């Protein structure tokens, strides 16, 4: 846990040091994550709502192509519609590096790699009026994937975007299961 907080702190320090050379901003919003992969049946799981929030830098913000690294806290997981209403809650620090391409005055498309560091993982279920929560160590500490989406940036400094996280590292350790973190994010941000 301490090493991940150190990584988060280092990332925030790096982004704050580039403010004079680029744009910096804050972004947050809602996540809709699920498990995906060939070993996941569409009937087993449904999207679980979570959230994300963090900071980003935008290098060459006035250029047609810009580079945007960021550091975000993100709650992912999945929901199961079984009798226990069971769910996986996975907390990560996401570090995306996005390439943005302007598509007109206010729109952009973006894509890039993302590395996610697991902070905490637990499985919950409802037993009557009680919720039982179990910590698990079976989730990998590192998740890698791709992020792509579309953004809207009016002149006011606000930005709105929709993105998809395509996890490429299996979620579980010591398992051959083809199960990945996959999900949509809707974000509202402000560039300073």
TrEMBL record:
This is Outer membrane protein beta-barrel domain-containing protein. Residues 1-20 form the signal peptide. Keywords: Signal. Residues 19-172 form the Outer membrane protein beta-barrel domain. It comes from the Bacteria.
